[in-house]
Amino acid sequence: MHPNVITMYQERFSEFMICLKRDIYPDSVPLSAKFACTDDPVKFEDRLKLEYKEIRQGEVWGHEWQSAWFNFTAEVPEHFSGKELCLLIHTGGEALMFDQAGNPIYALTGFSVFDANFYRDRYVIGKKDAGTKLNYWIEGAANGLFGILLPDFHELKPAAKHGSFSPEMRRMELAVFNREVWELMIDMTVMESMMKVSTTDTRRGMRMLYEINQAIDIYNFNPANAAKTRLYLKEKVFSKTASSTAMTTICIGHAHIDVGWMWPVRESIRKAARTFSTQLALMEKYPDYIFGASQAELYMMVKENYPALYERIKEKVKEGRWEIQGGMWVEADCNLISGESMVRQFLYGKNFFMDEFGYDVKNLWIPDVFGYSASMPQIIKKSGCDYFLTQKISWSRINKFPHNTFRWRGIDGTEVITHFPPEDSYNALCTPEQRIKAENRFKENAYLDEFISLLGIGDGGGGPSEEYLARNERLKDWDGCPKAKYGTAAEFFEGVAEHEAELPYWDGELYLEMHRGTLTTQAMTKKGNRYCEQALAALEFFASCADLNDYPSKQIANAYRDLLRNQFHDILPGSSIKMVYDRTEKEHAETLAMCKTEMKNIAARIFETAPDHCTIVNTLSTPWSGILELPESWCGFDVEGAAGVNENSIRITVPATSFTVIKKGKKKQFVRQTLSRPVLENEFVRYEFAPDGSLISAYDKTCRQEFMAQPGNIMAFYKDLPPVYDAWEMEIYYKRNEIGVMKGEWVSGFADDVASELNFVFRSEKSVLSQRIVLRPDSKRLDFITHADWREGHILLRTEFPTVIRGRAIYDIQYGQIERTVHDNTSWDLAQYEVCGQRYADLSCHNFGMALLNDCKYGYRIKDGNISLSLLRAPKHPDFEADIREHDFVYSLLPHAGDINAGAVCEEAAVLNRAPYVAEDFAAPADFDFPCRIESDGVSLEIVKKAEKSNAKIVRLVEYKGSFSKAELLFGSSVRKVSYTNLIEWENGEEIMLKGNKAELTLKPYEIVTLKLEE
Predict the structure, then answer these.
(1) Backbone Cα Rg of the chain
(2) Which pairs count as long-range contacts for 125-129, CB under 8 Å and 24+ apart, including other chains?
(3) pLDDT confidence band for 283 (50 / 70 / 90)
(4) 629-631-637-639 Cα dihedral, nearest 10 degrees
């Protein structure tokens, strides 16, 4: 057939589809409606307290983030009697229909950026007699599936910098529903997709075009011919079955619901209700349909706000129609959270599902997270999960990942069976085009027969509409397509496990070559998360020193729920709207305040009141050496028990997992020596600065080595304007966009018994950055204590330290370390131009090295001897004011002899990130001791806490040097039994033989060990 003729027939089909969609609703009458608009959601039972007014189609009923109750009424006209009827309602935003008892039953929401044809504006009510009075209540939200309309991030002065939304009542009708025409439309849509993927260059593509036009001829623009047309297609098209060699698609209904993103967390509660109620309704129509959902947080939201809906979900879980997926509390970011936070995601998530549903989730389900740490396989496995699913790595922009189903191997050697659905999406459309491409794309299709398809619209919730399921019915066994059946991830992975030995493996992190800016954006939230992680660990340890009957379990659990929720992969990375961060920062502040209060309460229970004394409590398993600010009433006094004292602070060393008592001395005049040059020096190191704040020399006296190749502490400004994903991206060419350096001015310098200090001020046209650069007399560590008044837009600020070192780069990750290349030899190396390091990154050769530590930053780059760290960004989308505020943070330079382990880098990073607790006016009694402490070169005591469901104590040990390390665990109280358990405290493992008051262990490289202590 001539190509132009083919085009003409394709155009005929397009016009026909417009007519067909019109014929689905051959007749309609308007609904009557009244509404009441409020700024915040109002519960169903309180809706009648509101004042209502009428609304008609085309009218605007509110503005962004408002809520409304609508009451739609109608009387069935005579000529509708006996016909299948439906409501057609589009409020201009998201909406949820309730029954008369106040239970959510169905969502009515239009449009998704992933599927322009995703409209859920029809609710079928069946046949009704003439004169029947209809009455329906719908809750509307003044936002769409993807929030509100945000300004383009290129606009310098948008009219509404935080967005706007004008919900217009677009449709409100009672209509006749012609189901035969609707089914024909599904047939034609599926055939069109097959024609596209096959192309008209093939016989199958031409056959589809021919049969489409045959069907158009039979229909002949007459809805009465719909059944006859469908019968023809059934015989000629859909009767042809799939090839015996076709793969099978395991179809699972899916609705990826972001806990917070382009909408506040408040709205996710209602998104969950809209999504879940709709999927339950679809289950009634499609008896083999299976839906799955992850995130215990969402289930908790539904339980607390929609209890009847929650009970219906529990029924479907029992029936096997609803699959609980993912062991985590939320689908958390996996770069930025600590090792213990990752453990708690599983601990709280899996315990919730077991307690509520009696179900043990065996997979980690996080399809949209921005990269996966190399320490995860061990954490996954020791949390009782055997399998892992994501698709996000398919987004990588430079290199294509070589596997779909494989064994993922972590830093300790643990392997987890992993699946990347080959549709490369968590928003599968149920079309032949997607399925056929996925089958051909599937890397292991030579010996595996199945892959997963996640049906439905996600991010803003929704899941599959009925159209998706109807299309899937056609694809279950159809010529040219993979076969399809509904199933569960659990069943799929059990099948894959039978082929485990054949699977390829990937060793190391799953690095996403995209979204690197999320390591830096929304700095205050990242700082709050880090500080809360440390504060909660310290609180648990200190609370374990007291009577466990007084343990603040409820306060800690509530704080962890807040913390874990705010680790969601669009909240912690910095890619959400301002409303999200207003809440997150408030909750972080509340957690820190709670920890402070509870620490004081515990001190009052276990210590003795002692005016003019302080007990300094170190909860780390390494000695803490540093500077502590004195209580206000102590300022100007000498301090007994401190290594150095000045007007308002002390320098002190507190033994590992122990305490030191200091005593307020006499009033004293303190002397400071003024420094004439910007040089800091002690017996170990000498640092020399230029007057502009750059570090021109870093000389290690013990190594007799100069570390700087060029001036360091360079405050480099880069234009940071990615073409898309403003808050997410930091493009590979950012270094070509350097627009200047913040020049500093030396303000002052002094030295006293506590430390030597230089003060610099750096300025740009808009921003001011002040630094106190501090060196203690007993340390090599140089602290850059920084305050920034940051007022830039689309600017990246980095600090850079060009060194003389040619060596290995090692970064801190969750409960371990990872080595990354320091060159760009391959495209895989080149793609890692910004990588995640938690508390430190280190560059070392055989005999010396240098580490860059931090207290709340994550974006590192070590290439060609240059160690650099991203400090601040200033994106405009989705939060126009992201990071435009004052910031306080610390980064530290640590030169050392030997490699990273010999240089005690991990220990110094721990010290920087967790200060001791100062119990003012308390002294520890002479017989006070901690529950346990550790003696080891290579094993850290990370956690001591009360067990979740007993009065036992839980101890977590981590081998952090990558070696076989021995450890002695010493107990301060009578311990009757010590046994192994897993990370979620479910296992009662092997008992460890005690030798007096100690246990001896040997840990493998990067091994995480959890013990249960029973008295």
Answers:
(1) 32
(2) 125/85, 125/86, 125/87, 126/84, 126/85, 127/82, 127/83, 127/84, 127/85, 128/76, 128/80, 128/81, 128/85, 129/76, 129/81, 129/82
(3) very high
(4) -70
Instruction: Provide the pLDDT for residue 752.
Output: 97
- Contact in structure between 696 and 708 (CB atoms under 8 Å): yes
C-beta separation of 272 from 461 below 8 A: yes
Closest CA to 598 of 630, 551, 562, 558: 551
Greatest alpha-carbon pair distance for the chain in Å reads: 103
Alpha-carbon distance 847 to 899, whole Å?
6
Write out the E strands in 647-755.
649-654, 658-667, 673-674, 679-681, 685-689, 695-700, 705-706, 714-719, 738-741, 743-751
Distances (CA, A) of 789 to 153, 527, 886, 913: 22, 16, 4, 23
List % helix, strand, coil for the chain (3-state, nearest 5). Answer: 25, 35, 40
Contacts of 351 (CB under 8 A, 6+ apart): 948, 984
**Which one of 360, 368, 479, 753 is the catalytic residue?**
368
With beta carbons less than 8 A apart as the criterion, state whether 115 and 427 touch.
yes
- How confident is the model over 247-268, as pLDDT tens digits? 999 999 999 999 999 999 999 9
Pairing of strands 1008-1014, 977-981: antiparallel
Q: How much is the pTM?
A: 0.97
Q: What is the pLDDT of residues 284-294, one digit of tens each?
A: 999 999 999 99
Question: Using one digit for the tens of pLDDT, what is the confidence trace for 173-215?
Answer: 999 999 999 999 999 999 999 999 998 889 999 999 999 999 9
| Nearest in space to 366 (alpha carbons), one of 313, 326, 307 | 326
Instruction: Take residue 798 and report the two structure tokens written for it.
Output: 């980095």
129 counts as catalytic: no
Quote the pLDDT of residue 77: 98
Q: What is the pLDDT of residues 530-558, one digit of tens each?
A: 999 999 999 999 999 999 999 999 999 99
Task: List Cα–Cα distances, 105 to 98, 124, 270, 298, 587, in angstroms.
Answer: 5, 12, 12, 17, 32
The pLDDT value recorded for residue 972 is: 84
In a 13 Å sphere around the CA of 235, the CA atoms on its Cβ side amount to: 7
661: Cα within 13 Å, side-chain hemisphere = 16
- Nearest Cα to Cα of residue 405 among 445, 372, 368, 371: 445
Cα separation of 954 and 943, whole Å? 7
Residue 574 — left, alpha, or beta (φ > 0 → left; ψ -120 to 50 → alpha)?
left
Kindly provide the b/e burial profile for residues 19-46, where b requires at least 16 CB atoms within 10 angstroms of the residue's own CB: ebeebbbeebeebebebbbeeebbebee
For residue range 554-613, what is the model confidence (pLDDT) as tens digits? Answer: 999 999 999 999 999 999 999 999 999 999 999 999 999 999 999 999 999 999 999 999
Distance of CA 670 to the CA centre of its chain: 49
Residue type, 733: Y
Q: In this predicted structure, what is the pLDDT of residue 807? A: 96
How is residue 425 written in tokens?
A: 């999406």
Give the total residue count for the chain: 1015
Write out the DSSP string of 584-622: HHHHHHHHHHHHHHHHHHHHHHHSEEEEEEEEEEE-SSS
- The yes-or-no verdict on residue 303 having pLDDT over 60 is yes
Q: Which amino acid, residue 535?
A: A
Identify the band that residue 829 occupies on the pLDDT scale cut at 50, 70 and 90: very high
Domains of the chain: 248-514 (3.20.110.10), 515-606 (1.20.1270.50), 609-671+915-926 (no CATH), 673-899 (2.70.98.30), 931-1015 (2.60.40)
Neighbours of 691 (CB within 10 A): 12
**CA-CA-CA-CA torsion for 896, 901, 905, 911, nearest 10 degrees?**
-130
* 3-state class (DSSP) for residue 706: strand
Euclidean distance between CA atoms 789 and 769, whole angstroms: 6
Place of tokens 């800091």: 680
Q: Are 500 and 418 in contact (CB under 8 A)?
A: no
